[in-house]
Amino acid sequence: MRSLLMRNPVVVGASWIGAYLLITVLPLLILLLYPPTPTNGRGFWIEFSVALGFVGLAMMALQFALTARLNKVEASYGIDLILQFHRYISLVAFIFILVHPLMLFVTDPETLQLLNVFEAPWRARFAVLATLALIALVATSIWRQQLKIPYEPWRIAHGILAVSAIGFGLAHALGVSYYLSLFWKVVIWTGLALTALWLLIYVRLVKPWFMLRKPYLVEEVRPERGNVWSLVLRPRGHEGIHFQPGQFAWITLQISPFRMREHPFSMASSAEDTERLEFGIKAVGDFTNTVKDVPPGTKAFLDGPYGVFTTDRYENTVGFVFIAGGIGITPIMSMLVTLAERKDDRPLILIYANKTWEDVTYREEIEDLKEKLDLQVVHVLREPPEDWSGETGYVDKEMLKRYIPKRAATRNYFICAVPKMMDQVEKALYELEVPVTHVHMEHYNLV
Ligand SMILES: Cc1cc2nc3c(=O)[nH]c(=O)nc-3n(C[C@H](O)[C@H](O)[C@H](O)COP(=O)(O)OP(=O)(O)OC[C@H]3O[C@@H](n4cnc5c(N)ncnc54)[C@H](O)[C@@H]3O)c2cc1C
Questions:
Q1: CA 421 to ligand 1 center in whole angstroms
Q2: Domains by residue range for the chain, with CATH
Q3: CA-based torsion, 235, 237, 239, 241: positive or negative
């Protein structure tokens, strides 16, 4: 009974939320269980501001768990949702941490002197350093693109700033030591700090070490339509990864996994074949532009599979509608070829938007799949050739209405495209009364 419950995704998802909330409110519980003695002279607002600081610090420490790609957590929500939560909750923690000194300054203006870092005690200096690290962390994340910071250096700086903010924050809390004087409170905070440290070690050392033991070799790099390259990998000395169609993996090519220069790509091949993995990679930037030159025999490392964008989670549905824009076709391709290999006879619709007819990645392969599947394909072109009689322009409500079944809620919908198209399609499906629980999306821009 217990193991059945723990396999239920809703129960598992709810337990993670419960654990998260418990850890974040722990500092408040401590405050409730051990209220400050009335003789200490500190009023409610000071106690409240300190509690906010502690809650903010606990939330920041937990960010390491959110971004450590722990398979069990990831499998409950999907990376999109986790990263969205990571972004929003960071802002909440940021506000709590900023409000903490502001409240102190308002209630006791003398504490403003602590901002004089030349004369202030170390505990105050640590607080200033933690706050500065946090401000830099939040600003460079929100405005990374406007500040024109490339992804890789940003990621390294993000890690350093996060560790600094928490390290200095903890040093500040230990320096003040007012709330940490009780033995078991020290235990809780040290435990939290050690967990964050372990997660860091796990991500930076343990995971890469496991990846190193399971290498892949590049079998071929093949050009596809639309400036896309098929990267074919074969496991070397192991059986490869078992994945669900539509999932993705983080790929490291040519270099050691310890260097942490990995990129996420959806598997485009069948989930039934773990011996040969194919990825469709569009050349858009520093890394993806180099894929075409990768020689066969090159070593590759994979961290995965990840993601919940898969038809395998909806075995009992009557049929599927896939809506892809450009390179968003890759996870959908994996779902289609897997369904074909499994001889699935459910009705499928693929609405596939591209700029030109020549750009349509996997055009011929999709045509062949029509022979093996009950598949209706609707190509949508923004710049159609003169003799084009198919759909043109953008995928909107009217267009969707022409193709999706009247009883729209009987299907599950998978969307993968640029953010703008995904937003528009999501809104249109909502207006067409498709329940939100039936709409699944994969975002390619994590940051
Ligand atoms: C879940 C998921 C699945 C994806 N599947 C595919 C796929 O099947 N085919 C495909 O062509 N693309 C896919 N992408 C997008 C692909 O990861 C990026 O295009 C690629 O990492 C860009 O790297 P670059 O150095 O060439 O480009 P850059 O010009 O350096 O970056 C372009 C943008 O890509 C993102 N990006 C860059 N590096 C990384 C990184 N290491 N990790 C995460 N994001 C990064 C950033 O938002 C950046 O602004 C997927 C992305 C995600 C999140």
A1: 17
A2: 2-210 (no CATH), 215-306 (2.40.30.10), 314-441 (3.40.50.80)
A3: negative
